[in-house]
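hiii so um. not sure if this is the right channel but i have a protein structure encoded as tokens and i wanna go backwards to a sequence. like what aa goes where. can anyone help
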């Protein structure tokens, strides 16, 4: 009889703990709704500008998984790639025209928000596109004006010299812009030996567990600085712009993410492991490599991201 009583008390205790965790998760989710983020329908476009190395498409695939975990539904995600293989899998060919068409095809409405990630090489003129003129800040501003209008818009650009995209021509009160480098600096990690560029790796690690875009910027800054100091590289100095209407905008989190916080698990963890093993044919990009990255035990990549892809054959900085 005493044993049955102890078992009953144990079951009751476990049930109470589970209900408490659930209540905390629900409370956090309801609290998040008060900042208006949960009332927004996020619509995303991801684009790579080159397929000479896998790092760009690797980031696109993994970020898509994270966007899905954030609550962006598949129908609200458009992908563009320079890779013929990725285009066979459904991605649109990367170009300025297709970027504009993809965003307009999402039909951004009054209750929606725009989320754009672009990763490639870069130059002081803008975002590199293989076999095409670069996308300049003025061009991107025009694309966003038409497709996203005055809706909350978050632009994430991973490229050398990408700080040109936080200049006056891109600054609008409804926009948040995060870039991998200052307008006069290169960024790093673009090589066949790496899974992601430095900045994309820091973005991918921090995005699922960070509350706001402003906090995300600070975390990425510190993460990139650590990686670059280990390699004794000239700092890339990631940049940001926060428009007055969206300066405190929260990163969307789903109820699934809230449950994951309560259980101590990251919502995108298993998806990312699966995608990464598909993302690269090389055995060097294995599950072990992903675990090492998550433990900040990242092998040093000594190839700078450059504006001229023909120089990739020579492992040097520019």
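sure thing!! here u go:
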């Amino acid at each position: 009889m005493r044993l049955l009583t102890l078992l009953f008390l144990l079951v009751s205790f476990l049930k109470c703990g589970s209900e408490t965790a659930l209540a905390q998760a629900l409370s956090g989710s309801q609290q998040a709704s008060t900042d208006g983020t949960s009332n927004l329908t996020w619509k995303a476009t991801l684009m790579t500008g080159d397929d000479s190395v896998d790092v760009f498409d690797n980031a696109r695939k993994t970020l898509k998984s994270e966007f899905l975990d954030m609550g962006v539904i598949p129908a609200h995600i458009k992908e563009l790639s320079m890779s013929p293989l990725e285009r066979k899998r459904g991605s649109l060919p990367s170009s300025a025209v297709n970027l504009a068409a993809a965003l307009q095809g999402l039909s951004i409405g009054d209750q929606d928000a725009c989320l754009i990630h672009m990763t490639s090489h870069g130059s002081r003129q803008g975002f590199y596109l293989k076999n095409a003129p670069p996308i300049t800040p003025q061009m991107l501003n025009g694309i966003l004006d038409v497709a996203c209008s005055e809706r909350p818009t978050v632009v994430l650009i991973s490229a050398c010299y990408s700080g040109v995209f936080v200049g006056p021509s891109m600054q609008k009160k409804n926009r948040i812009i995060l870039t991998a480098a200052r307008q006069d600096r290169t960024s790093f990690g673009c090589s066949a030996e790496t899974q992601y560029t430095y900045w994309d790796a820091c973005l991918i690690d921090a995005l699922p567990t960070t509350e706001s875009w402003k906090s995300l910027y600070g975390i990425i800054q510190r993460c990139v600085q650590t990686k670059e100091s280990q390699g004794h590289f000239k700092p890339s100095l990631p940049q940001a712009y926060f428009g007055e209407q969206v300066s405190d905008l929260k990163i969307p989190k789903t109820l699934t993410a809230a449950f994951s916080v309560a259980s101590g698990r990251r919502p995108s963890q298993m998806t990312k492991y699966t995608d990464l093993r598909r993302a690269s044919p090389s055995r060097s990009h294995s599950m072990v490599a992903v675990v090492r990255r998550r433990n900040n035990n990242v092998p040093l990549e000594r190839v700078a991201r450059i504006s001229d892809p023909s120089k990739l054959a020579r492992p040097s900085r520019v």
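oh and The chain has ten helices and ten strands.
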